[in-house]
Amino acid sequence: MRSGRRVSRSRRDWAVDIGLFLFAACFGMVTSEQIAGLEELSPAWRAVDQVVGGLACAAVFLRRRWPVALAVVLLTAGVWAHFVTGPLLVALFTVAAYRPWRTTAWVAALAFAPLPWFLGELPGMEEQRAGSGVTYFALIAGSIGWGLFRHAQRELIASLRDRAERAEAEAALRAERAQRMVREDIAREMHDVLAHRLSLLSVHAGALEFHPSAPAEEVRRAAGVIREASHAALQDLREVIGVLRATTSAGESGEGRPQPTLGDVERLVEEARGAGTDVVYEPLDSAAEFSGTVGRTVYRIVQEGLTNARKHAPGAPVRVRVSGRAGDELRVEVRNTVPGPAVSGPGTRIPGAGQGLAGLAERARLAGGRLEYGRFGADFRIKAWLPWPARPS
Protein backbone atom coordinates (compact mmCIF):
# COMPACT_ATOMS: atom_id res chain seq x y z
CA MET A 1 0.00 0.00 0.00
CA ARG A 2 1.67 3.22 -1.17
CA SER A 3 0.28 6.65 -0.48
CA GLY A 4 -0.45 8.89 -3.45
CA ARG A 5 -0.06 6.18 -6.10
CA ARG A 6 -2.61 4.26 -8.05
CA VAL A 7 -3.34 0.99 -6.24
CA SER A 8 -4.54 -2.10 -8.05
CA ARG A 9 -6.87 -4.16 -5.88
CA SER A 10 -7.20 -7.89 -5.90
CA ARG A 11 -10.51 -9.63 -5.22
CA ARG A 12 -9.48 -10.04 -1.61
CA ASP A 13 -8.72 -6.29 -1.36
CA TRP A 14 -12.13 -5.44 -2.76
CA ALA A 15 -13.81 -7.81 -0.31
CA VAL A 16 -11.94 -6.23 2.61
CA ASP A 17 -12.75 -2.68 1.48
CA ILE A 18 -16.45 -3.48 1.01
CA GLY A 19 -16.53 -5.10 4.43
CA LEU A 20 -14.95 -2.05 6.06
CA PHE A 21 -17.37 0.23 4.19
CA LEU A 22 -20.33 -1.74 5.58
CA PHE A 23 -18.78 -1.65 9.06
CA ALA A 24 -18.41 2.15 8.90
CA ALA A 25 -21.98 2.63 7.70
CA CYS A 26 -23.51 0.23 10.23
CA PHE A 27 -21.43 1.71 13.05
CA GLY A 28 -22.90 5.15 12.46
CA MET A 29 -26.49 3.89 12.27
CA VAL A 30 -26.24 1.57 15.28
CA THR A 31 -24.61 4.13 17.59
CA SER A 32 -26.67 7.14 16.56
CA GLU A 33 -29.26 6.52 19.28
CA GLN A 34 -26.64 6.35 22.05
CA ILE A 35 -24.90 9.66 21.29
CA ALA A 36 -25.73 12.38 23.75
CA GLY A 37 -26.93 15.65 22.24
CA LEU A 38 -27.61 14.21 18.82
CA GLU A 39 -31.35 14.49 19.32
CA GLU A 40 -30.93 18.20 20.14
CA LEU A 41 -29.73 18.97 16.61
CA SER A 42 -32.09 20.44 14.08
CA PRO A 43 -33.40 18.15 11.32
CA ALA A 44 -31.37 20.08 8.74
CA TRP A 45 -28.14 19.70 10.70
CA ARG A 46 -28.80 16.02 11.26
CA ALA A 47 -29.35 15.61 7.52
CA VAL A 48 -26.01 17.35 6.85
CA ASP A 49 -24.38 15.06 9.41
CA GLN A 50 -25.78 11.99 7.66
CA VAL A 51 -24.68 13.22 4.21
CA VAL A 52 -21.16 13.91 5.48
CA GLY A 53 -21.16 10.49 7.13
CA GLY A 54 -22.21 8.85 3.85
CA LEU A 55 -19.44 10.62 1.97
CA ALA A 56 -16.97 9.55 4.68
CA CYS A 57 -18.10 5.95 4.32
CA ALA A 58 -17.58 6.16 0.56
CA ALA A 59 -14.13 7.66 1.18
CA VAL A 60 -13.15 4.39 2.86
CA PHE A 61 -12.36 3.11 -0.65
CA LEU A 62 -9.61 5.78 -0.84
CA ARG A 63 -7.84 4.52 2.27
CA ARG A 64 -5.28 2.48 0.30
CA ARG A 65 -4.19 5.47 -1.78
CA TRP A 66 -4.34 8.36 0.74
CA PRO A 67 -4.56 6.83 4.23
CA VAL A 68 -2.93 9.72 6.13
CA ALA A 69 -4.81 12.49 4.34
CA LEU A 70 -8.10 10.63 4.78
CA ALA A 71 -7.46 10.18 8.51
CA VAL A 72 -6.63 13.87 9.01
CA VAL A 73 -9.74 15.03 7.11
CA LEU A 74 -12.00 12.66 9.03
CA LEU A 75 -10.46 13.69 12.36
CA THR A 76 -11.25 17.29 11.52
CA ALA A 77 -14.79 16.50 10.37
CA GLY A 78 -15.35 14.23 13.40
CA VAL A 79 -15.26 17.25 15.73
CA TRP A 80 -18.86 18.13 14.78
CA ALA A 81 -20.15 15.13 12.72
CA HIS A 82 -21.08 11.92 14.54
CA PHE A 83 -21.54 9.71 11.46
CA VAL A 84 -17.87 10.20 10.56
CA THR A 85 -16.72 8.10 13.55
CA GLY A 86 -17.01 4.72 11.77
CA PRO A 87 -14.96 5.73 8.70
CA LEU A 88 -12.51 7.49 11.05
CA LEU A 89 -11.84 4.24 12.92
CA VAL A 90 -11.15 2.51 9.60
CA ALA A 91 -8.79 5.31 8.48
CA LEU A 92 -6.85 5.27 11.77
CA PHE A 93 -6.51 1.48 11.57
CA THR A 94 -5.17 1.78 8.02
CA VAL A 95 -2.57 4.39 8.99
CA ALA A 96 -1.37 2.34 11.96
CA ALA A 97 -1.26 -0.90 9.94
CA TYR A 98 0.50 0.36 6.81
CA ARG A 99 2.28 3.62 7.50
CA PRO A 100 5.69 4.08 9.25
CA TRP A 101 5.75 4.32 13.04
CA ARG A 102 6.54 8.03 13.03
CA THR A 103 3.60 8.85 10.77
CA THR A 104 1.29 6.80 12.99
CA ALA A 105 2.55 8.68 16.05
CA TRP A 106 1.75 12.06 14.49
CA VAL A 107 -1.74 10.97 13.47
CA ALA A 108 -2.37 9.46 16.91
CA ALA A 109 -1.24 12.70 18.56
CA LEU A 110 -3.74 14.59 16.41
CA ALA A 111 -6.50 12.11 17.29
CA PHE A 112 -5.88 12.44 21.03
CA ALA A 113 -5.31 16.21 20.95
CA PRO A 114 -8.86 16.92 22.38
CA LEU A 115 -8.32 14.43 25.24
CA PRO A 116 -6.80 16.95 27.74
CA TRP A 117 -9.70 19.33 27.18
CA PHE A 118 -12.17 16.46 27.59
CA LEU A 119 -10.56 15.33 30.84
CA GLY A 120 -10.66 18.90 32.14
CA GLU A 121 -14.40 19.19 31.45
CA LEU A 122 -15.19 15.67 32.65
CA PRO A 123 -16.08 16.49 36.31
CA GLY A 124 -18.88 18.88 35.30
CA MET A 125 -20.09 16.87 32.33
CA GLU A 126 -23.37 14.95 32.40
CA GLU A 127 -23.06 11.18 32.61
CA GLN A 128 -24.29 10.29 29.11
CA ARG A 129 -22.05 12.82 27.42
CA ALA A 130 -19.06 11.70 29.52
CA GLY A 131 -19.74 8.07 28.61
CA SER A 132 -19.91 8.95 24.92
CA GLY A 133 -16.58 10.79 25.13
CA VAL A 134 -14.83 7.96 26.96
CA THR A 135 -16.20 5.46 24.45
CA TYR A 136 -14.98 7.62 21.55
CA PHE A 137 -11.39 7.83 22.81
CA ALA A 138 -11.42 4.14 23.74
CA LEU A 139 -12.49 3.28 20.18
CA ILE A 140 -9.74 5.52 18.79
CA ALA A 141 -7.14 3.80 20.98
CA GLY A 142 -8.46 0.35 20.06
CA SER A 143 -8.41 1.14 16.35
CA ILE A 144 -4.81 2.43 16.45
CA GLY A 145 -3.73 -0.46 18.70
CA TRP A 146 -5.24 -3.06 16.40
CA GLY A 147 -3.55 -1.40 13.44
CA LEU A 148 -0.19 -1.44 15.24
CA PHE A 149 -0.68 -5.13 16.00
CA ARG A 150 -1.36 -5.83 12.32
CA HIS A 151 1.69 -3.74 11.40
CA ALA A 152 3.94 -5.74 13.74
CA GLN A 153 2.43 -9.00 12.47
CA ARG A 154 3.08 -8.05 8.86
CA GLU A 155 6.68 -7.06 9.65
CA LEU A 156 7.19 -10.35 11.51
CA ILE A 157 5.84 -12.35 8.58
CA ALA A 158 7.98 -10.36 6.15
CA SER A 159 11.02 -10.92 8.37
CA LEU A 160 10.37 -14.66 8.57
CA ARG A 161 9.84 -14.83 4.82
CA ASP A 162 13.05 -12.88 4.21
CA ARG A 163 14.91 -15.15 6.63
CA ALA A 164 13.55 -18.24 4.86
CA GLU A 165 14.58 -16.82 1.48
CA ARG A 166 18.07 -16.03 2.80
CA ALA A 167 18.35 -19.52 4.27
CA GLU A 168 17.28 -20.99 0.94
CA ALA A 169 19.78 -18.82 -0.91
CA GLU A 170 22.54 -19.78 1.54
CA ALA A 171 21.65 -23.46 1.14
CA ALA A 172 21.84 -23.09 -2.63
CA LEU A 173 25.17 -21.27 -2.25
CA ARG A 174 26.52 -24.03 -0.01
CA ALA A 175 25.38 -26.65 -2.51
CA GLU A 176 27.04 -24.72 -5.32
CA ARG A 177 30.22 -24.36 -3.27
CA ALA A 178 30.21 -28.08 -2.48
CA GLN A 179 29.73 -28.88 -6.15
CA ARG A 180 32.57 -26.54 -7.07
CA MET A 181 34.82 -28.22 -4.52
CA VAL A 182 33.94 -31.61 -6.00
CA ARG A 183 34.74 -30.31 -9.46
CA GLU A 184 38.07 -28.95 -8.24
CA ASP A 185 38.84 -32.30 -6.63
CA ILE A 186 38.05 -34.04 -9.90
CA ALA A 187 40.23 -31.54 -11.77
CA ARG A 188 43.11 -32.29 -9.41
CA GLU A 189 42.50 -36.00 -9.90
CA MET A 190 42.57 -35.55 -13.67
CA HIS A 191 45.79 -33.55 -13.47
CA ASP A 192 47.55 -36.06 -11.21
CA VAL A 193 46.51 -39.13 -13.16
CA LEU A 194 46.92 -37.87 -16.71
CA ALA A 195 50.13 -35.96 -16.05
CA HIS A 196 51.73 -39.16 -14.81
CA ARG A 197 50.51 -41.25 -17.74
CA LEU A 198 51.37 -38.68 -20.37
CA SER A 199 54.82 -38.08 -18.94
CA LEU A 200 55.48 -41.81 -19.36
CA LEU A 201 54.35 -41.53 -22.97
CA SER A 202 56.59 -38.53 -23.54
CA VAL A 203 59.65 -40.25 -22.05
CA HIS A 204 59.31 -43.40 -24.16
CA ALA A 205 58.39 -41.48 -27.31
CA GLY A 206 61.42 -39.23 -26.78
CA ALA A 207 63.62 -42.28 -26.35
CA LEU A 208 62.41 -43.69 -29.67
CA GLU A 209 62.91 -40.32 -31.34
CA PHE A 210 66.49 -39.80 -30.15
CA HIS A 211 67.55 -43.45 -30.47
CA PRO A 212 66.09 -44.63 -33.79
CA SER A 213 68.84 -47.28 -34.07
CA ALA A 214 67.97 -48.95 -30.77
CA PRO A 215 67.64 -52.75 -30.78
CA ALA A 216 64.32 -54.11 -31.96
CA GLU A 217 63.59 -55.58 -28.53
CA GLU A 218 63.94 -52.18 -26.84
CA VAL A 219 61.79 -50.54 -29.54
CA ARG A 220 59.15 -53.24 -29.06
CA ARG A 221 59.22 -52.82 -25.30
CA ALA A 222 58.97 -49.00 -25.56
CA ALA A 223 56.08 -49.31 -28.02
CA GLY A 224 54.35 -51.70 -25.62
CA VAL A 225 54.75 -49.25 -22.75
CA ILE A 226 53.39 -46.44 -24.92
CA ARG A 227 50.40 -48.54 -25.90
CA GLU A 228 49.65 -49.59 -22.32
CA ALA A 229 50.12 -46.06 -20.98
CA SER A 230 47.85 -44.68 -23.72
CA HIS A 231 45.13 -47.18 -22.90
CA ALA A 232 45.51 -46.48 -19.18
CA ALA A 233 45.34 -42.72 -19.79
CA LEU A 234 42.21 -43.09 -21.89
CA GLN A 235 40.64 -45.29 -19.24
CA ASP A 236 41.50 -42.81 -16.48
CA LEU A 237 40.14 -39.94 -18.57
CA ARG A 238 36.93 -41.89 -19.24
CA GLU A 239 36.49 -42.60 -15.52
CA VAL A 240 37.11 -38.99 -14.49
CA ILE A 241 34.71 -37.62 -17.12
CA GLY A 242 32.12 -40.18 -16.05
CA VAL A 243 32.45 -39.05 -12.46
CA LEU A 244 32.18 -35.42 -13.56
CA ARG A 245 28.95 -36.17 -15.44
CA ALA A 246 27.55 -38.04 -12.45
CA THR A 247 28.44 -35.11 -10.23
CA THR A 248 26.71 -32.66 -12.53
CA SER A 249 23.52 -34.70 -12.81
CA ALA A 250 23.21 -36.22 -9.35
CA GLY A 251 25.50 -34.17 -7.14
CA GLU A 252 27.64 -37.21 -6.20
CA SER A 253 31.38 -37.21 -6.00
CA GLY A 254 32.01 -40.71 -7.28
CA GLU A 255 33.56 -42.11 -4.13
CA GLY A 256 32.45 -45.62 -5.15
CA ARG A 257 35.10 -46.03 -7.85
CA PRO A 258 38.42 -47.68 -6.92
CA GLN A 259 40.96 -45.28 -5.45
CA PRO A 260 44.74 -45.74 -5.16
CA THR A 261 46.21 -46.46 -1.73
CA LEU A 262 49.64 -46.59 -0.11
CA GLY A 263 50.05 -50.16 -1.34
CA ASP A 264 49.92 -48.97 -4.95
CA VAL A 265 53.04 -46.82 -4.54
CA GLU A 266 55.24 -49.86 -5.27
CA ARG A 267 53.52 -50.31 -8.64
CA LEU A 268 53.97 -46.60 -9.32
CA VAL A 269 57.70 -46.85 -8.64
CA GLU A 270 58.03 -49.85 -10.95
CA GLU A 271 56.32 -47.92 -13.74
CA ALA A 272 58.80 -45.08 -13.29
CA ARG A 273 61.72 -47.50 -13.34
CA GLY A 274 60.32 -49.06 -16.51
CA ALA A 275 60.34 -45.58 -18.06
CA GLY A 276 64.06 -45.29 -17.34
CA THR A 277 63.97 -43.27 -14.12
CA ASP A 278 66.45 -44.28 -11.44
CA VAL A 279 64.18 -44.55 -8.35
CA VAL A 280 65.30 -45.53 -4.87
CA TYR A 281 62.21 -46.45 -2.84
CA GLU A 282 62.25 -46.75 0.94
CA PRO A 283 58.82 -48.10 1.92
CA LEU A 284 57.15 -47.83 5.27
CA ASP A 285 58.62 -50.23 7.85
CA SER A 286 55.20 -50.95 9.32
CA ALA A 287 52.84 -53.33 7.57
CA ALA A 288 49.96 -50.89 8.02
CA GLU A 289 47.83 -50.26 4.95
CA PHE A 290 46.35 -46.83 4.49
CA SER A 291 43.14 -46.42 2.56
CA GLY A 292 40.87 -43.46 2.15
CA THR A 293 42.15 -39.89 2.10
CA VAL A 294 45.58 -40.42 3.67
CA GLY A 295 46.53 -43.40 1.49
CA ARG A 296 45.30 -41.65 -1.64
CA THR A 297 47.19 -38.48 -0.70
CA VAL A 298 50.46 -40.41 -0.25
CA TYR A 299 49.98 -42.04 -3.64
CA ARG A 300 49.31 -38.68 -5.34
CA ILE A 301 52.34 -37.04 -3.71
CA VAL A 302 54.65 -39.78 -4.95
CA GLN A 303 52.97 -39.75 -8.36
CA GLU A 304 53.36 -35.98 -8.72
CA GLY A 305 56.97 -36.13 -7.51
CA LEU A 306 57.89 -38.78 -10.08
CA THR A 307 56.02 -36.92 -12.82
CA ASN A 308 57.82 -33.65 -12.01
CA ALA A 309 61.16 -35.44 -11.98
CA ARG A 310 60.52 -36.78 -15.50
CA LYS A 311 59.36 -33.34 -16.63
CA HIS A 312 62.03 -31.12 -15.15
CA ALA A 313 64.93 -33.46 -14.28
CA PRO A 314 65.03 -36.22 -16.89
CA GLY A 315 67.71 -38.75 -16.11
CA ALA A 316 68.24 -37.53 -12.56
CA PRO A 317 67.93 -40.11 -9.76
CA VAL A 318 64.85 -39.90 -7.54
CA ARG A 319 64.53 -40.98 -3.93
CA VAL A 320 61.13 -41.82 -2.47
CA ARG A 321 60.81 -42.38 1.25
CA VAL A 322 57.72 -43.16 3.36
CA SER A 323 58.22 -43.29 7.15
CA GLY A 324 56.53 -42.64 10.44
CA ARG A 325 54.72 -44.44 13.23
CA ALA A 326 51.18 -44.83 14.50
CA GLY A 327 50.07 -42.14 16.91
CA ASP A 328 52.56 -39.64 15.50
CA GLU A 329 52.51 -38.81 11.77
CA LEU A 330 53.19 -40.28 8.37
CA ARG A 331 56.04 -38.63 6.46
CA VAL A 332 56.42 -38.74 2.69
CA GLU A 333 59.46 -37.38 0.89
CA VAL A 334 60.27 -37.30 -2.82
CA ARG A 335 63.70 -35.88 -3.68
CA ASN A 336 65.59 -35.58 -6.95
CA THR A 337 68.77 -33.87 -8.07
CA VAL A 338 68.21 -30.58 -9.83
CA PRO A 339 69.73 -31.00 -13.30
CA GLY A 340 72.32 -28.75 -14.81
CA PRO A 341 72.34 -27.68 -18.45
CA ALA A 342 74.13 -30.88 -19.52
CA VAL A 343 71.49 -33.16 -18.07
CA SER A 344 68.52 -31.54 -19.73
CA GLY A 345 69.21 -31.70 -23.43
CA PRO A 346 67.28 -29.68 -25.98
CA GLY A 347 63.81 -30.91 -26.69
CA THR A 348 63.78 -33.36 -23.77
CA ARG A 349 61.93 -31.27 -21.24
CA ILE A 350 58.23 -32.08 -20.85
CA PRO A 351 55.97 -29.01 -20.59
CA GLY A 352 53.84 -28.54 -17.51
CA ALA A 353 51.52 -25.91 -16.10
CA GLY A 354 53.14 -25.90 -12.65
CA GLN A 355 49.80 -26.33 -10.84
CA GLY A 356 50.36 -29.85 -9.52
CA LEU A 357 52.36 -28.85 -6.42
CA ALA A 358 49.76 -26.29 -5.38
CA GLY A 359 47.12 -28.99 -5.74
CA LEU A 360 49.24 -31.34 -3.61
CA ALA A 361 49.46 -28.75 -0.84
CA GLU A 362 45.67 -28.43 -0.89
CA ARG A 363 45.30 -32.23 -0.82
CA ALA A 364 47.56 -32.46 2.22
CA ARG A 365 45.67 -29.71 4.00
CA LEU A 366 42.33 -31.41 3.36
CA ALA A 367 43.80 -34.65 4.73
CA GLY A 368 44.73 -32.86 7.96
CA GLY A 369 48.45 -32.47 7.23
CA ARG A 370 50.85 -30.12 5.51
CA LEU A 371 53.22 -30.14 2.56
CA GLU A 372 56.40 -28.28 1.71
CA TYR A 373 58.28 -28.19 -1.57
CA GLY A 374 61.16 -26.33 -3.09
CA ARG A 375 64.85 -26.42 -3.85
CA PHE A 376 67.21 -27.38 -1.04
CA GLY A 377 70.81 -27.10 -2.20
CA ALA A 378 71.29 -29.32 -5.23
CA ASP A 379 68.01 -31.18 -4.66
CA PHE A 380 64.35 -30.46 -5.26
CA ARG A 381 62.29 -31.87 -2.43
CA ILE A 382 58.62 -32.53 -1.79
CA LYS A 383 57.89 -33.42 1.82
CA ALA A 384 54.56 -33.99 3.48
CA TRP A 385 53.41 -34.74 7.03
CA LEU A 386 50.07 -36.53 7.32
CA PRO A 387 48.13 -37.72 10.38
CA TRP A 388 48.56 -41.33 11.49
CA PRO A 389 46.11 -42.10 14.31
CA ALA A 390 47.17 -44.57 16.98
CA ARG A 391 45.85 -48.09 16.67
CA PRO A 392 42.90 -48.82 18.96
CA SER A 393 43.90 -50.91 21.95
Please write out the topology.
Elements: H1 11-31, H2 43-58, H3 67-77, H4 85-98, H5 101-111, H6 115-121, H7 127-210, H8 216-250, H9 265-274, E1 279-282, H10 292-312, E2 318-324, E3 329-337, H11 356-366, E4 370-376, E5 379-387
Parallel strand pairs: 1-2
Antiparallel strand pairs: 2-3, 3-5, 4-5
Helix pairs in contact: 1-2, 1-4, 3-4, 3-5, 4-7, 7-8, 7-10, 9-10, 10-11
Task: Describe this structure as you would to a colleague.
Helix content is 61%, strand content 9%. The protein has 393 residues and is an alpha+beta fold. The protein has 2 domains: 11-169, no CATH class; 261-393, Histidine kinase-like ATPase, C-terminal domain (Heat Shock Protein 90). The chain has a 5-stranded mixed sheet. Mean pLDDT is 77; it is low at 250-256 and 341-351.
Proportion of helical residues: 55-70%
So how many helices? 11
Name the poorly predicted regions. Answer: 250-256, 341-351
Mean pLDDT: 77
Write the element-wise H/E pattern from the N-terminal end onward: HHHHHHHHHEHEEHEE
Distance between the terminal alpha carbons, to the nearest Å? 71 Å
Q: Assign the structural class, choosing from mainly alpha, mainly beta, alpha/beta, alpha+beta, or little secondary structure.
A: alpha+beta
Number of domains: 2
Number of strands: 5
How is the biggest beta sheet arranged? 5 strands, mixed
Percent strand equals 5-15%
What is the 3D form?
rod-shaped
Main-sheet strand order equals: 1-2-3-5-4
Radius of gyration: 43 Å
